[in-house]
Design brief:
The chain is mostly beta strands. The chain is built from no helices and 15 strands. Strand 1 and strand 2 (13-18) form a beta hairpin.
């Protein structure tokens, strides 16, 4: 089925999310899927954490799921995050904090999460329409989240000042 999201995992591997409810890990040189993580809902977006090996994914059922592809026993989905009231459109791991990620949703919000909690750290409500994408900025001693929306606006959210 349709591939909805891709990201690099390492020099020779990438990860893809698909509307067939799977996340696949690919060996690039051989073009072979080396691992298939099967879920129950189509994958709209996902991101891979190079430092922890975890994958966070967003779905049309308004849930975010945390996957551990290294798991050999039990569930590959380690945790689910519920708070959005609309389809998840984007998700990004924090570039330095292994526990945090951000999500965008068609409910008009962007949220910042910590994997050690079931509730969001921040809910950002600056847009007047669907939030379609998010990305982190850690420059100029600031931790910021950039969000883009169907309202045709970008918002830069200052989450905290950083000290050197």
């Amino acid at each position: 089925d349709r591939i909805s999201s891709v990201c690099w995992r390492a020099d020779r591997t990438c990860v893809s999310g698909s509307w067939d409810n799977t996340i696949r890990i690919w060996d690039i040189p051989s073009a072979i899927s080396t691992s298939i993580l099967r879920g129950k809902k189509a994958v709209n977006c996902m991101d891979f954490s190079g430092s922890t090996g975890l994958i966070v994914s967003g779905h049309a059922d308004n849930l975010l799921r945390l996957w551990d592809p290294r798991s050999k026993e039990g569930e590959l989905v380690r945790q689910q995050f519920r708070s959005h009231k609309g389809i998840i459109s984007d998700v990004k791991w924090h570039p330095e904090n292994d526990f945090q990620f951000a999500s965008a949703s068609l409910d008009g919000t962007a949220r910042v999460w910590d994997t050690r909690s079931s509730v969001p750290l921040f809910t950002l409500r600056s847009h007047t329409d669907k939030v379609l994408c998010v990305n982190w900025n850690l420059h100029d001693n600031k931790e910021q989240l950039l969000s883009g929306s169907a309202d045709r606006k970008l918002h830069l959210h200052l989450l905290k000042e950083r000290r050197e």
